Amino acid sequence: MGFGNMNRFEKIALYTALFTLPFTHAPTVDLPFRWRIAELIAWLVGIPLILKPVRVWSKLAKVFLVALGSYMLWCASVGVVNAFFITVKVPAALEGTYHPLFRTVLESFRFAASWVLVAWLFRYVTTQDKLRTTLTLIVLGGNATSVYAIYETMVLFWGFPGPLLPGSRSIPGFPVASTMYEPSSVGSYAAIAMLLALGLFLEKKSFTAGLSVLLNAIGILVATSRTGVAASAVGLLVFLLILLQQGQIRSSVKIGTSLGLIGLLAAYLSSRLLGQKFYERFSSYYVEYSLSLRYQETYQYVVPDLLQYTLGLGQGLWLYSVGGGAGLARLVVEGGIPGLIFLGNGFAVLWITLIRLVKTCRRALEGSLVAAVIATLVSLYNYVNITDLWIWVVLSLPFVALNTRNQGTVQFQNLRDSNAL
User: Fold this and answer.
1) Which secondary-structure segment (H or E) carries 229?
2) Which of 111, 114, 159, 338 gives 20 to 30 Å between its CA and that of 47?
3) What's the rounded Cα separation, in Å, for the pair 281 and 9?
4) How far apart are CA 59 and CA 1, in angstroms?
């Protein structure tokens, strides 16, 4: 039996998990340390569901799940061993993590929750309507994060009287982090929410979807997320190219013009909220400085650390060497050569699926989905927390979309055969 027959409680649980994907730091549940709401739902509700037999997974989806699961298990195993031998070069990293073993176990459990939620989606989202519902919930979560980013800006920059959510990392004088870890996290998620909202708007001409495009554009800019700007720009370019590939030249021109106007409106409103801080954060000096800093702190250590830890450093442990580490670099160093092999297979089938979607794409929603995946990959250059569930949920969407299309074909064939009889 597939997940189309989930009961009311199970559906509410899945919908809540999807909506709360961007709630990585506020609000969260402390039991006794910080757990994200979506993680708890994945463990408590998702595991019993994915253990039920089902026959709706495509071969590509199975390869992706096996590759992701293998990488996760490998990093966890290596991390448990290396946690006792790693040299802590950044003592501040021990604050709140107590011991490297604690961090690698915690991060491994979080990564496993991502795997569970992806498997849950593969089993449940088997129709176009369910796919649309899934994307809508992701967008609504982005709306909530963007609205809260605006609210935090009013509180911290304008002195608006109001409380902040427990766990919020935003402080006066600095760009807001909203419900997430840092401004780049907010911008990265708002970018994919904006792209998906654009696809929903073009498909249904919904006012809510159109408003979501504007809200998430403001969310990117009010957080002054350069990562979000880059991810959304690349994603929008990909989306417009897909429309051109479909022969929708007039539509692509209209969309490009409309998005330009929305961008200008979002920039104006954000600059009014942030004042001089807005122009400082997007100045060429700050952009060049941030790129240089990211290279100096992270990417110049990738090859040396990969050679030192050929079999992988372990999940979450690079924090103690470089004090953080961007997502792409973390995936390489923490997984080592075996991890690269596992992820190589996963990303290979992801690209195959993306290419199939692009070649046969006939709906704006599928085009926006492809653009959101590309935007996510761009954001990983700077995004820190690779175990955040939303990353792997978005990267799994092409398999879900292709599966819903295949299921629709099978159902149509069965109906035609039954009519013939």
Assistant:
1) helix 226-245
2) 338
3) 44
4) 19
Nearest to 385 by CA among 209, 189, 92, 216: 189
Confidence band, pLDDT 50/70/90 cuts, at residue 50? confident
pTM of the model: 0.89
pLDDT band at 16 (very low <50, low <70, confident <90, very high): very high
Q: Tell me the two tokens of residue 274.
A: 């942030």
Rounded CA gap, 228 and 233, in Å? 8
| Distance separating alpha carbons of residues 302 and 321, to the nearest angstrom | 11
Q: Give the Cα-Cα-Cα angle 166, 167, 173 (nearest 5 degrees).
A: 100
Least Cα distance to 371 among 172, 191, 211, 128 occurs for 191
> Average pLDDT in the 246-267 region?
76
Q: Mind listing the pLDDT tens digit for each residue in 102-161? A: 889 988 999 999 999 998 898 888 888 999 999 999 999 999 999 999 999 888 888 888
What is the SS3 assignment for 177? coil
Average pLDDT for 391-407: 88
CA nearest neighbour of 69 among 21, 6, 3, 118: 118
Nearest Cα to 230, choosing from 378, 72, 414, 23?
378
Tokens of 297: 């702190």
3-state helix, strand, coil in the chain (%, to 5): 75, 0, 25
What tokens appear for 258 in the block? 């409309």
Task: Give the HSE-up count for residue 151: Cα atoms under 13 Å, Cβ half-sphere.
Answer: 14
Tokens of 104: 């690698």
